[in-house]
Structures are given as structure tokens and as C-alpha cells.
Amino acid sequence: MGEFVLEMRDVTKRFPGVVAVKNGNLDLRPGEVHCLVGENGAGKSTLMKILAGAQPLDAGTIKIAEEDVHITSPHHAQQLGISMIYQEFNLSPYLSVAENIFLGREPRIPKTPFINWKKMYADAREILGRIRVNLDVRKPVNECSVAQQQMVEIAKAISFNSKIIVMDEPSATLTDHELEALFELIKTLKRQGIGMIYISHRLEEIFTIGNRVTVMRDGEYIATKQVCDVTREDIIRMMVGRDLTQEFPKEIFPRGKERLRVDGLSRKGAFNNVSLSLHEGEIVGLTGLVGAGRTEVARAIFGADAIDAGTITLDGKAITVKSPQDAIRQGIGLLTEDRKHQGLILGMSVRENTTLANLRSLVKFLFVNRAKERQITSEFVKELQIKTPHIEQTAQNLSGGNQQKVVLAKWLFTESKILIFDEPTRGIDVGAKVEIYKLMNELVRKGVCILMISSELPEVLGMCDRILVMHEGHIAGELSREDATQERVMQLATGQRLADVA
Amino acid sequence: MSRNPARAFFVNYGYLLIALVLECVVFEFLARRQGIKPFLSFDTLLLVLNQSAIYGVASVGMTFVIISGGIDLSVGSLIAFGGVICALITQKLGAGWNAMIFGWFVAIAAGIGTGSFSALFITRFQIPPFIATLAVMSTIRGLGFLIVEGKPVFDVPERYTFLGRYLVAGIPIGVIILIFVFIIGGVLLNSTRFGRHVRAIGGSEESARLSGVPVDRVKWAVYCMSSALAVLAGLMLSSKMKSGDPTVGVGDELQVIAAVVVGGTSLTGGRGTIMGTFLGLIIIAVLATGLTWIGMESFGQQVILGIVILAAVLLDRIKRT
């Protein structure tokens, strides 16, 4: 009786100069969700790339259904019943759901080169039915939501009769509601005996859907535990290798004078009559469900999108912000939610990214003062503890946490007085998160006002002095640090009235 | 990344230098075997530079456009248009220096106007650069024909050949302009805020905008620069031919793009150098000169040029992976 569908034993993978995975172990039972956690660079991705046939292994064994296998290519992995669902989907945007599911193996009308559309749509419907997803199979994929696209990826995996499905950060881009749907689907797959390897930075998810959890750190296998035997703190300790004294190292500072004030800000179709103020010494949280208009408000304050009505006052003076340039000149900075496409120029070096928003200050007689630029960048790298081999490294080669620090360095170099952080810790591992929080404390100490947009409630509750909750484009309510609880925030975010708070 | 400039230079451009040296060696060998004049000499160098002057001037502007993530297809039309305008003005206003210099300025101004027009559609109306400049290419080509009613302007004074045929200390004016434009272009791209902004926009337009880069203004400058330099190239060509001919320069934008791409500039934007474009230009010019030297006719030359472009791009791809 084969107990495991997959067994990876003592898998080792070396790259020139580094051991990416050392004695990695991972096994999987049918109908099980096995969570794989670790900080960025812990070796999770490499281990999964080996499983997917994208990287050859240097040592160790892989057994599938009790048989030794040597996975030679992604195609081979697929034949062995292994499917990968990456954060970035492998879908062709203008093709329909059904066409995507059967891409490359479309059913044909016998003895002709023509596609049997009827059969393809019927088969696609059947597969979607098996995972209880209700979706029009003729709909082009680019018209589907991100969550629906993920369902299509999963349906594709099912259509290959995969017994092993690897999900890499599937929850990163989903709303809470969509996440519930994903968990439902995972439960359905479990009942059908499919084993799943689930990679996520959100530890609470492990406790919702995981059976077992394996922790990796610095390329090494640390331990595999039953989820019911461990606590969140245990997992974090295994991940970072030491006790994380505080997940949210909040420091309270005395509330100072008002710096930024926004009155009656409106943008048609995005948000309506939004008013808020930021004081020295505080971090203000702006939360709500995805799509409530939080990012839009931030972009409007920053001048990235035009506003239809409302005023912005900085230090008692009304200001007009028509473009990001205006905002930067006034001392307002925005750390965008999407670091890779809106925050950084990935092909540029750490140095060039750091100075981009305030290059003006380095120009002398038309020329950029390179020596000074290098010196300033080196100082930021040291101060923020950015892990990079040198300042000429291109930004795309840094980990998520370090990329975020480079973005932060960019705004520190503009000497912004007001900083808006949009999802500052998304996709960043636990250790780096704490570092970002500490840097935020440091900024507040220096007199910078922070507006933090976040979907992660623990983070909002843990780090903010005041919390504004948005619902469908307007501010539904404000909670002080003392009054705020998960329940109250969610009540406001879903448009309910607060019974017990004035 | 090495701090040693010589080493950094070789790391970045080594494969282009090797290709160039290889070309020279092969042509020298073939020339000797055929018993004709040796290929390698100072005269050949001047010949190569002189022949690449016209494409070269335009390729500096094109490099900026391509690094910014765009493309400019109107270059060939502007080469003809610039020459036609200048020749027409010189003819109409008499034979003095002033008339010709006035013609230069009007032509360059027309180029800047054309660039502004392209940029307006690309920035304000978000038309893809390929389409916008394709339309401008056709419009400008037609205008060139219209203002001279389809007939080339031949009636220009001897001094009209100043840009194309005059020498200073034995070096053609065109070569001096070429080197001057490349130096200015290189400094602009590498050492100024403008150059940094161009690369930032090509790397990620949205990130650049949200970092306070004046995206529309930078793009406007880039297209104006490309158009103005294309007109300058047109003035040089028109001067060399001592006429303003609306039929010249058809397809020249592709030759210019070839030099930029062989030089390692990425068509997706964000990455590229002026030095690379210079080497790309010279590699192609040495090829054309060398093949003519050993007596190959132009059809065969085109075949070989195509293969060299592919090989260069392939090498660049291999180098980066």
C-alpha cells in the first residue's frame, strides 16, 4: 500500500558559489495539503523547480507513487502527474477558458485537423464541474478575474490527471472572499485524493487548510510537523532561527501637530468625499476590502490620478497636486503596492533606483555627480541594511524585502515629510517585515507622517495609531488603536454599523 | 561589476570589438589574396567613417528613442524632407552663405516640429510610437514631394556641398559632425539627468512617472531629437549629392535601426548605449566597404548584411544569459 504519492529525500542543489538546497525533504500523501514555508531565499522555490523538472538535482532521490523517478523536463513532470500553479499564470489572455484548459491538446474531429469545439466545451464544463467552479467556458481569460484565472489554472492541472499540485503563493492577489472560494476548492480536491503542496507567506492560512507543514531556512530542511501540533510562534521561530521578540514592534510616540489634511476628496467611480488628516508622531492605517478605493485615494493624494473635488492642505497651506512631480516637490512620497512595475525600474541598478526621484539634487552643470551618488547610495544600503552584493546590482536580482528597502531609500532620499505605504509588506517574509516595521518607527521618530494602506488586519492593528476603514469608496469609520479589533474593522469594511462603538 | 574602466569596457563591448577585428582581418586577408590594395589603412578608416556619417547621425537619435521604449519610422522621410527644404530655400534666396545657413535652420526647425507632432500623438493620445511615426513617415514623404512638385532641386551653388564634400585638415566635415554628435549623445545619455530619465522610462514608464520623472516632456525631447538629427543627416546627404531630392532615404530608418540593434540596444527599451550604436554602425559600414573592396556586388552584400545582423543579435542574447 503506497502511503506517499511523492517523496523527496535528501535533495541537494548547488549553484556556482551557493548551495541553494541542502538535504531537502518533502513528502506528500494523497488528499493532503502540505504547507511549505520559509523566508525568501530559504530554498522553497528551488526545491519546487526541481520537482517541476525545471532544474536538475545534484544529489538525492525523488519517488513518485513509490517508484524512483528522474525528472528530466517540465513536460516529463507533467506526465508524472505534477502540476505547478505559479503566481504568474501561464494563460493565453485572448483565448477562452476552454481553449486554455486544452491548449496544445485540443480534441479533434476524428481524421481531420479541425477542433471538435463541442467536445472541448463539454469536457471543459465537466472538469470545472468536478471542482465545482461555475464559469463560462467560452469567456476569454482576460475578461476573467484573477481568482477565476487561478481556477482555470487549477482546472488545467486537473485535466492532466495530476495527483500532485503545487501552489506558489496562491493567495497573494486574492480578496478575502475569493480566498474562501479557493479554500473550498482545495477541500474539494482533497476529497478527490489529490495531494497539494501549498507555499504561502501568510501563516494563518496554514492553520486554515494545512495538514502538515515543512519549514526551510537558508536552503536547509528544518522540520516537518503536523499543523495541529504547532503554533504560529513555533513556525516563525523555525523560519527565522531565533525568537522573534515581537512580530509588530510598535512604538508609541506623542501625537504632534497636524501636517497633512484632506477634505472632501472625490474621484468619480473610485471614491467619494474622503477626508482624513495625518499628525506628526503617528501611523494612520487605511484599510478595507480590496476594491474599496484605498489605493485610489493614495494615488490621488500623490497626484498620480486626477481628482474631481476636494482639497489637500499641507502644514496649514492649501496645495495643488496635479502630478507625482508636484507631490514630490511638496514632500509627499508613495510606496506603491506593485513594487515591480510601479516602484522600481527593475533593469536599473540599486544606485539608479535610489536616486531616481531626487536626481535633481545631484546635478551640477547638467551632469549627475556619480561619486556623490555612489556615496549616498552606499549610506542608504548601510542604514537600511539592504542585502546586495554591491550598489550596481540590478534591482530585479534582489529579494522582495530588499526591493522594498530600495524603494524606501528612494523616498528617504527625497526627504519626504509624508509617506504613503501601500501594502508595504506584501510578498515579504516575516523577518524582513519586522525590519520594515522598525524602519517605519524610525521614520515616525524623525517626524515623518505615515499613512499605511494594508489588507492584512494583524499588521494594521499591530502598527497603526488610528485606523480608517473604507467601504465602497467612502470612509466608513475611524477606530483608535485601543478600540480596534478585527471584528470591528471587518464590520466597518463590510458596510455594517458598529453597535458597540460610538 | 568592475570599477576598472578598461575592463568594464571590454565586458560590455568585447563581442562587438571582436566582431569588428574579425571583419578587418578577413577583408585584409581577402584583399591580399586577390592582390589588390591592402584593406587596412587610414584612408579606409576615413572612408568608412564618411560613409557611415549620414546613418550615424540619425542613429544617435534613434538610440534615444529605442531606449525610451519607442521607435521612429519617420527617419527616412525626414532625411529627404530636410534636404528638399534646404535646397529649395538656397535656390530661392540666392547663392550666399546666409541663404544656405537660413535653410539649415528652417530644415532643423521643421524637424523639431515634426518630432513634436509625433510626440503629441504618442504622449497625449497614447498612440503606439510604431503607428504614430508610420503615419508621420508617409505624411512627411508626401510633403517632401509636394513642396517641389515631385522634381528634385538641382539648381544650387557650389558651396551647397559644404556639409557633404568639404574637408578640414583632410578630414571630411561629415566625419567631424558624426564624431561630435556621438560625443554629445554619449554624454547626454550617460551623464545627465535627461539620459537617466530616458532609460528609466524605457525600463518602466509607470515606475518612472510615479518617481516624478516628467515622462511626457522627456518623450517629447526624445522624438524631437531623433527628428532633428534625421534632418541633419538629410542636410548632409543633400549636400553630398548637391541636390534636394524627395525620393532619397526610402527605408533608411531600417538601416539606422539595424545599427542600433547590432550595438546591443534592446528593442523593448531600458537598455542600450551610444558606444554600442557607434560600434554597430562601424561594423555594418566596414562590412559594406569591405565587400565592395573585394568586388562583391550589392545583392550579395544585402544577404551578408542580413546574416550579420542576426549573428550580432544572437551573440548579444547569448552574452546576457
Summarize the structure in words.
- The complex is a heterodimer of chains A (502) and B (321).
- Chain A has 502 residues and is of the alpha/beta class.
- A six-stranded mixed sheet of chain A has the order 6-7-8-3-9-10, sandwiched between helices. A six-stranded mixed sheet of chain A has the order 16-19-20-13-21-22, with helices on both faces.
- The mean pLDDT of chain A is 89.
- Chain A has helices at residues 44-51, 74-79, 97-101, 117-130, 146-159, 176-191, 203-209, 232-240, 294-301, 324-330, 339-343, 350-355, 370-383, 400-413, 430-445, 457-463, 486-493, and strands at 6-15, 18-28, 33-37, 59-64, 67-69, 82-85, 164-168, 195-199, 212-217, 220-226, 258-267, 271-279, 283-288, 309-314, 317-319, 332-335, 363-364, 367-368, 418-422, 449-453, 466-471, 474-480.
- Chain B is an all-alpha fold and 321 residues long.
- Chain B has a single domain, classed as ABC transporter involved in vitamin B12 uptake, BtuC (Orthogonal Bundle), CATH 1.10.3470.
- Helices cover 75% and strands 1% of the residues of chain B.
- Chain B is built from 13 helices and two strands.
- Chain B has helices spanning 5-33, 42-67, 75-93, 97-123, 129-147, 162-165, 173-191, 193-203, 205-210, 215-241, 252-262, 274-293, 298-320, and strands at residues 167-168, 171-172.
- In chain B, strands 1-2 form a two-stranded antiparallel ribbon.
- Chain B is globular.
- The relative contact order of chain B is 0.19.
